[in-house]
Structure formats: structure tokens, C-alpha cells
């Protein structure tokens, strides 16, 4: 719980810096770059979160890896996280920054679960329909679940739309059991 509060505090700070610089998307792209490397290279995460390694060594590595690849403010933010021993909450900081950024830019993220990948035409049609429903720009995140049998399940925030065969069968079963 304390870590989430810390993550919110740091995410809000970098978010406000991004807003001041009028570069919300650019900061988001830089943080996503760092996040991607953090996920692709678990050794980097282990190194940066290890309390036995000197902060100066960690900062030197960060400068070597990210200098010129991300904005100077983002690099300085990462160095601050090292100084404050907060790199273990970077995943949460990045996620919260994304939420704050999407909210500010009027973007809704829809998690779409299907059995197979959607065709480009289906993605376009679904995106347009969700944009009409939400009144926001929609970004899709696709997921796979073979247990759905067919159809699609969409989750936007706390709203869930179940158009899957599995969902329909469950609804029919519940209705039959109620009678």
C-alpha cells in the first residue's frame, strides 16, 4: 500500500513536468521505452533494485543506457528514483503515468479478448463503435483466450461488454436454472 502511494506521488510529479513542458506524449514514449527495457531485461531491474549496489554505479549504468535516448528530464527523474531508492516501484509509476496521461488526452484503453487475432477491418470497426459509445478516442489492447469459444469480451475501465459464446452460454444456463 505504501509503495502504491509512493508510485502515485512520483507518477504525478513526472506527469506535471510533462504537462508543463507540453510534451505529454513524448514523456509517455520515453517512460514506455524504459518500461519496455525493464521488462525485456529482468537483469537490469534486478540490478537497479538491488540495495547492495552503490547508487553511483546504478546511475552510471542508467546514463550509459539512456543518455540521448530519452529526454533529459526523464533521465533525471530516473536518477532521482535511484537516489531515493524507489526504482522498485517504477512499473507502478509508469502505469499510473499512462492512466493520468490517457485521462488528460481523452483516451480510453479497451482490453479486447478474443479467441483469434482480429482482422484489421474488425479492429477498425470495433474501435469506431467503442469511440461512439464512450465519446473518447479508444486504444485497443488485444488479448487471447481460447475458452471464449468465439465472440469478443471488451473491458473499458470498470465497464465490461461480454459478446462471447462462453458468456452467452453462461447467461442461458443461469436463466434456465432460475426457472
Key phrases:
four-stranded mixed β-sheet, 179 residues, alpha+beta, single chain, 14% strand, Peroxidase, domain 1
And the CATH topology of the largest domain? Peroxidase, domain 1
**CATH 4th-level superfamily of the largest domain:** N-terminal domain of the delta subunit of the F1F0-ATP synthase
The structure class reads alpha+beta
**CATH first level of the largest domain:** Mainly Alpha
Global morphology: elongated
Radius of gyration, in Å, reads 21 Å
CATH architecture heading of the largest domain: Orthogonal Bundle
Question: How many structural domains?
Answer: 2
* Helix residue percentage: 55-70%
- % residues in beta strands: 5-15%
Strand element count: 4
Mind summarizing the main beta sheet? Answer: 4 strands, mixed
Q: pLDDT below 50 for ≥5 consecutive residues: which ranges?
A: none
Order of helices and strands: HHHHHHEHEEEH
Strand order of the largest sheet: 2-1-3-4
* Measured distance between first and last alpha carbons: 45 Å
Membrane topology: Peripheral membrane protein
Keywords: ATP synthesis, Cell membrane, CF(1), Hydrogen ion transport, Ion transport, Membrane, Transport
GO cellular component, one term: plasma membrane
Organism: Selenomonas infelix ATCC 43532
Amino acid at each position: 500500500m505504501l509503495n502504491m502511494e509512493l508510485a502515485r506521488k512520483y507518477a504525478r510529479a513526472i506527469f506535471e513536468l510533462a504537462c508543463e513542458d507540453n510534451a505529454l506524449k513524448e514523456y509517455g514514449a520515453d517512460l514506455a521505452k524504459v518500461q519496455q527495457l525493464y521488462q525485456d531485461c529482468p537483469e537490469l531491474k534486478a540490478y537497479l533494485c538491488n540495495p547492495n549496489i552503490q547508487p553511483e554505479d546504478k546511475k552510471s549504468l542508467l546514463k550509459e543506457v539512456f543518455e540521448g535516448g530519452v529526454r533529459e528530464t526523464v533521465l533525471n527523474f530516473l536518477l532521482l528514483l535511484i537516489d531515493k531508492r524507489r526504482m522498485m516501484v517504477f512499473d507502478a509509476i509508469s502505469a499510473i503515468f499512462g492512466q493520468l496521461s490517457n485521462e488528460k488526452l481523452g483516451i480510453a484503453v479497451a482490453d479486447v479478448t478474443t479467441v483469434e487475432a482480429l482482422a484489421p477491418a474488425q479492429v477498425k470497426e470495433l474501435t469506431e463503435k467503442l469511440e461512439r459509445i464512450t465519446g473518447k478516442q479508444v486504444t485497443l489492447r488485444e488479448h487471447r483466450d481460447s475458452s471464449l469459444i468465439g465472440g469478443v469480451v471488451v473491458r473499458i475501465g470498470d465497464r465490461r461488454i461480454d459478446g462471447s459464446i462462453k458468456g452467452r452460454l453462461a447467461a442461458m444456463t443461469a436463466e434456465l436454472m432460475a426457472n
